[in-house]
Amino acid sequence: MKLRTIALILAAALCLSLAACGSSAQNNTQNNTTQLANTANQTENTVPANNTTNQTENKNRVAKDGAVMQTEDKSMPTRVPAENGTKINMYFGDTLITGVLNDSETAKALISKLPITQHVSRYSHDFCGVTEELPYNEADVHYGWLNGDIDYALNAPYFTILFEDEDVSEQYGYQVNIGVITCPLSDIAALKGDYDVRIELAEEAPASQKSDAAVVYFSRVGNTDFPANVDAVSSASLLSDGGTIKGNAQMMAEWIASEAGCEAFEIVANDPYPADYNATVDQAKTEQRSSVRPTLKSDLSNLEQYKTIYLVFPNWWADLPMPLYTFFESYDLSGKTINVFITHEGSGFSGTINTISQLEPGATVVKGLSVRGGSVSGEEQNIRSWVRNNK
Ligand SMILES: Cc1cc2nc3c(=O)[nH]c(=O)nc-3n(C[C@H](O)[C@H](O)[C@H](O)COP(=O)(O)O)c2cc1C
Q1: pLDDT digit string (tens) for 221-271?
Q2: Is the pTM of this model over 0.70?
Q3: Domains along the sequence of the chain with CATH
Q4: Ligand 1, atom nearest to 345 Cα
Q5: Per-residue 3-state assignment (H helix, E strand, C coil) for the chain
Q6: How many angstroms separate the alpha carbon of residue 251 from the centre of ligand 1?
Q7: Whose CA is nearest to atom 4 of ligand 1?
Q8: How far is the CA of 38 from the centre of ligand 1 (A)?
């Protein structure tokens, strides 16, 4: 009789633990008793997630804190992956869900165990399964998540990929963010049921499978010797990226290369343009009037191996900057697709698509995006979406 009672207590404890994962799955409003931070699974110094006082106290520990977020493209994860994060592949049967893990203590411990097979089940806002215990830093523990987050939930513990409901997620506590998926949220939301997910490091593609695309760009910054004290705030058309001055076309080129998974090559003229903006504007006009072909420092003969070229440049006097004429007259891009991206301050593409088609008659010239210089910093997701949708 005693043995039966003990067995019943153990079974009830196991059910409670599993219900905590399921809770993240079911209707939030109905499941306050079985949330991720289920009190039955908390250690003495933890607090219930649905305790509003503690939620207020812990406001500085929610998922948003410290996260670099994008909010332009709701179809993609909110958190921008850690720049030097570890890329992983997660195989849900035949479906590949890609992700990037961060450098938290927990993520590092998981990375050291890869490859692993993790059992997960689908719930209303996550795929979740009990996982091996991993170390964590108390300072990384927070409430809530951002859509697309890969989290380690301390109660149980659970491995969870949260693809929905970030707006109401702060009622759930005791999570450590270990990364984010990098594919559209709908890819994972479309999956149903249970999976033994194989999680492995994403291998660097062998040379033979490397991208058949390349970005080629021209930007004023790379073609100007600015004085060391030039600053992006007072200088028209310059962007500051973590303290580094960047041109608008350069910024766009970097996003395109990152999205396409390919290299970016810059067109650089031998003679730099003047640091003074108006002097450059005047010089460009003079060059255009006399059809100058500035000689190039860049050797771009390796473009031969690529099928797709993303070309990014600024509109100069309703035309291509003259170094681009030199570029097109130096390299035959026949057989390639040229996706054209322009940045400007009102003139859009002007006649540049026709001009490029005439200069490269054997290439397929595709109108990409035209982005106002002043709006470039807010256009990252649009630019990335274009690349994704036109691969
Ligand atoms: C020499 C020069 C000529 C320009 N001519 C035009 C123009 O005709 N139409 C326009 O909309 N913007 C014009 N602009 C603005 C640039 O196209 C715009 O600021 C662009 O975002 C700069 O990109 P970058 O930082 O990569 O050089 C000109 C800029 C320069 C420097």
Answers
A1: 999 988 766 665 555 566 666 567 899 999 999 999 989 989 999 999 999
A2: no
A3: 49-201 (2.40.100.20), 207-389 (3.40.50.360)
A4: 11
A5: CHHHHHHHHHHHHHHHHHHHHHHCCCCHHHCHHHCCCCHHHCCCCCCCCCCHHHHHHCHHHCCCCCCCECCCCCCCCCECCCCCCEEEEEEECCEEEEEEECCCHHHHHHHHHCCEEEEEEECCCEEEEECCCCCCCHHHEECCCCCCEEEEECCCCEEEEECCCHHHHHHCCCEEEEEEECCCHHHHHCCCCEEEEEEEECCCCCHHHCCCEEEEECCCHHHECCCCCCCCCCCCCEEEECCEEEEHHHHHHHHHHHHHCCEEEECCECCCECCCHHHHHHHHHHHHHCCCCCCECCCCHHHHHCCEEEEEEECECCECCHHHHHHHHHCCCCCCEEEEEEEECCCCCCCHHHHHHHHCCCCEEEEEEEEEHHHHHHCHHHHHHHHHHCC
A6: 14
A7: 316
A8: 57
Distance 345 CA to ligand 1 centre (A): 6
Residues 353-375 have pLDDT tens digits of: 999 999 999 999 999 999 999 99
Write out pLDDT tens, residues 9-27: 433 333 333 333 544 433 3
